[in-house]
Write a structure and sequence with these properties.
alpha+beta; 7 helices; about 250 residues; single chain
Length: about 250
């Protein structure tokens, strides 16, 4: 629950120039008192409460449908175990306005300090500057999606705005036209690879996918799925690799 509180504070602290921001939380049938505590601290935030855990895919779809009914221009999908730089959303929006064909945009994402895979290999000054995502790569021969730059200390080596294969579901800035043209996340995937699937369908529909390094944030990796390498994570990554391979691999 503390992750969610810290994430929401970073969202509230976003620098807003020329845009309005409404925050929507989707509660996927939590069993603690987190909803009540969030309502107490953030009464202005709208919370959608699900009767069961619909996973990442349908859980986010419920929030997206609510947002689209409010005539939003963009939807920002965001994991609750994240912290945003104060200019994160502004930089994504500025980029989206420059690239009309861009449908999905992703920021540079660092590991939150102390959550790096190999945190003992870094100096104390490097923690919090280790890259988690700087664009997406897909090895179709083995049906493996990976993050460009993962585990590297940021020294500006991925500071160019580029088209990319996919944007991580951890943070996806999506033009409403994408959902209108191709639909929502595939609820069959439930958890993992649903971001890649959405990006592939968007590309087939003519949208471009961009990595935006001027926008950045931090991620407490895999906190919501029991930690990196958990049984839950391993199961859905393995299963969904097979499903994605059957759909898209040559």
């Amino acid at each position: 629950m503390q992750d969610s509180i810290e994430c929401l504070r970073s969202v509230e602290n976003q620098k807003r120039e020329g845009f309005e921001l409404e925050t929507i939380i989707v509660d996927n049938a939590s069993t603690d008192d987190s909803v009540e505590k969030i309502k107490a601290q953030f009464p202005q935030i709208h919370i959608l409460i699900n009767s069961e855990n619909f996973g990442f895919s349908e859980g986010n779809n419920i929030g997206v449908r609510y947002a689209l009914k409010k005539k939003v221009d963009f939807v920002f999908i965001l994991n609750n175990d994240t912290l945003l730089d104060k200019n994160c959303l502004l930089r994504l929006l500025q980029t989206a306005k420059k690239y009309d064909q861009g449908g999905i945009f992703g920021p540079k994402i660092y590991f939150s300090a102390g959550h790096e895979y190999h945190k003992d290999n870094y100096s104390s000054t490097q923690l919090g500057k280790v890259i988690w995502y700087a664009g997406g790569k897909i090895d179709w021969d083995n049906v493996l999606a990976s993050h460009r730059g993962v585990d590297e200390v940021d020294q500006g080596q991925y500071d160019l705005l580029v088209k990319t294969s996919f944007v991580s579901g951890c943070a996806m800035f999506i033009r409403r036209a994408v959902f209108e043209r191709i639909g929502m996340f595939d609820q069959k995937l439930f958890l993992y690879y649903e971001d890649l699937d959405l990006c592939k369908r968007a590309q087939k529909a003519g949208f471009e996918i961009y990595y935006v390094p001027s926008s950045f944030m931090w991620h407490k990796n895999a906190n919501s799925s029991g930690g990196s390498g958990s049984d839950l994570q391993s199961y859905y990554i393995t299963r969904n690799r097979l499903l994605i391979g059957l759909r898209y691999a040559p």
